Amino acid sequence: MENLRKKEVARTFASAFAESIREALKSVTGSSWPLEVLKGANPPTQKGMPVHFRLSLEGALSGDCFVEFYEPQVMRLLSKMLREPVVEFTEGHSATLARFIVSATEGLVASRPGEYGQLRFRVERVSGLAFGGMLVVPIATSEEEPDFQVQLYFGAELLDTLSLLQDSRDESQTDKSVATPHNLKLVMDVELNVSLRFGQRQLPLREVLDLASGSVIELDRMADDPVELYLDGKLIAYGEAVVVDGNYGLRVTEIPQPVASYLIN
Questions:
Q1: pTM score, whole prediction
Q2: Contact, 198 vs 227, CB < 8 A?
Q3: What confidence tens digit (pLDDT) does each residue in 186-201 have?
Q4: CB of 54 within 8 A of CB of 128?
């Protein structure tokens, strides 16, 4: 179950990364690259020498993820990016590709702030790696005939923090669902005390002691300002004071947010 969970969070992260790469590719080449996480269990056949970059994450997530490209595809990509033929992959091209990956990671952070929080990426070219035991997620332009492919290798620390972050989100959603409108039906007949506030004023003790019949206290609210309706100390509505059968009442004119949200939170 734990391994399945890690595969799920890794594929979710890989999908977000694929989307950011897709947008970055479109930005630098002007054409669409329909990259997506492949559904098949086996990655596509590797074509050419691999080119590896390490993505080190800090912040809401921590750990390493390795990105694997392949030289023939990278040179075709660089040709489109640089608007000139690239026949040999050089260190200069490696720096260009690293900057491209940085722009993709920036896009991922900008597009998923609520999902992955604040993240910082460090990107560096690495070589001579052995990926034994790492979880790999393949990304390609199509499953049938991939002409551009990327492999993501997830380190153990990153998988752990991805799982913890997902667990935290799941627990948060569970906590919010404890008191839903459906569950509120069970307590619909419970009576609650609500109060109106026409205004307030702070008085020094000596003025309070001087109060007598006929004293007038000026409140901090104009006559045409809305009256506030409170439930257990929480402002739930604004309105106008009215008289109903000789009793004061409130005609509600504004509800800042659904009243049920106060009960749920």
A1: 0.62
A2: yes
A3: 777 788 888 888 888 8
A4: no
**Distance (Å) of CA 92 to CA 28, 97, 99:** 17, 9, 11
For the domain made up of 181-264, the CATH class stated in words is: mainly beta
Spatial separation of the C-alpha atoms in residues 152 and 65, rounded to whole Å: 7
Query: In this model, does residue 74 exceed pLDDT 80?
Result: yes
* 35: amino acid identity, one letter: L
Q: What is the pLDDT of residue 247?
A: 87
Count of Cβ atoms closer than 10 Å to residue 27 Cβ: 12
Residues 6+ apart with CB under 8 A from 13: 65, 116, 154, 162
CATH class of 2-176: alpha beta
The full set of domain ranges for the chain reads 2-176, 181-264
